[in-house]
């Protein structure tokens, strides 16, 4: 089992079958540099006090949650009152619908979580649900309550486990029409489209996340390391790479020239491989 603490414990329910599971965040929050605000004259970190206008600093135990139903008018809620709100989804994720794996528009996806069985007794049922989803190429839909709100979620196979992805509600997604309405509906010119299509085909390859690096974070780490080195302090990291920067090509004036130049720049090996394949096929025929 992972060393991380689960962010949710409960059960996945498929009809009359209930499977005890745990959820773990699939992403790491500490992978990027974070900064604190520092008071330059003293070199000390800036802290923020909770202050009420006309009252001054207050203690945390004097604070309640409030919903602003009108300007400056609030309904106050105690933590116990909020905790008393009964939701089945706080402890149970019931799979109420199944859809094709590609039916959900990517714009709805929010965060990803690994789902694992709580113990060995839960594994048999867990494997059945996982393999059934894989065999049918379906995604299970349901709702789950955690961290103070209820989410729509999608459940699908991931290696030997399951992946749960929280989804945005429909009213949380902005409509695209106001942004795209000013864009012409006319099609691209065929000769330009042909060259752009060839360029895309030559740059097509299987997705490998490891090939992409966070150059901005690397540059920030390098900057911090240089600052520490000048002070004789320990480096933040030793595996920092300088980010690669594309050379400026000047202003692009002719779209066709730019596309053709890009196509020629990606020719090389793939072009040769393509010729070789054609020659082989010709001989075989």
From TrEMBL:
Keyword presence, DNA repair: yes
Annotated Pfam families: Ku
SMART domains: Ku78
Disordered, as annotated region: 231-285
InterPro entries with a match to the protein in the record: DNA_bd_Ku70/Ku80 (IPR006164), Prok_Ku (IPR009187), SPOC-like_C_dom_sf (IPR016194)
The organism's place on the tree of life at top rank: Bacteria
Protein name: Non-homologous end joining protein Ku
Organism: Pelagibacterium nitratireducens
């Amino acid at each position: 089992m992972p060393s991380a603490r689960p962010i949710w414990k409960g059960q996945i329910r498929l009809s009359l079958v209930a499977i005890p599971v745990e959820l773990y965040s699939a992403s790491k929050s500490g992978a990027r540099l974070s900064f604190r605000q520092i008071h330059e004259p003293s070199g000390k970190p800036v802290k923020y006090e909770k202050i009420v206008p006309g009252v001054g600093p207050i203690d945390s135990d004097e604070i309640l949650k409030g919903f602003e139903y009108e300007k400056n008018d609030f309904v106050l809620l105690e933590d116990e009152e909020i905790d008393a709100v009964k939701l089945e989804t706080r402890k149970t994720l019931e799979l109420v619908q199944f859809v094709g794996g590609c039916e959900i528009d990517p714009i709805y996806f929010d965060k990803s979580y690994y789902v694992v069985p709580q113990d060995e007794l839960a594994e048999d049922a867990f494997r059945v649900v996982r393999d059934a989803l894989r065999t049918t190429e379906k995604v299970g839909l349901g709702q789950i309550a955690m961290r103070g709100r209820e989410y729509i979620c999608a459940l699908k196979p991931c290696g030997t486990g399951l992946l749960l992805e929280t989804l945005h509600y429909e009213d949380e997604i902005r409509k695209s029409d106001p942004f795209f309405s000013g864009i012409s509906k006319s099609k691209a010119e065929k000769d330009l489209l042909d060259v752009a299509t060839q360029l895309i085909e030559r740059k097509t390859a299987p997705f490998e996340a490891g090939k992409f690096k966070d150059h901005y974070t690397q540059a920030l780490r390098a900057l911090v390391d240089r600052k520490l080195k000048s002070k004789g302090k320990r480096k933040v990291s030793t595996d920092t790479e300088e980010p690669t920067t594309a050379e400026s090509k000047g202003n692009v004036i002719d779209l066709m020239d730019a596309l053709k130049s890009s196509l020629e720049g990606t020719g090389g090996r793939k072009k040769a491989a393509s010729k070789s394949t054609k020659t082989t096929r010709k001989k075989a025929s």
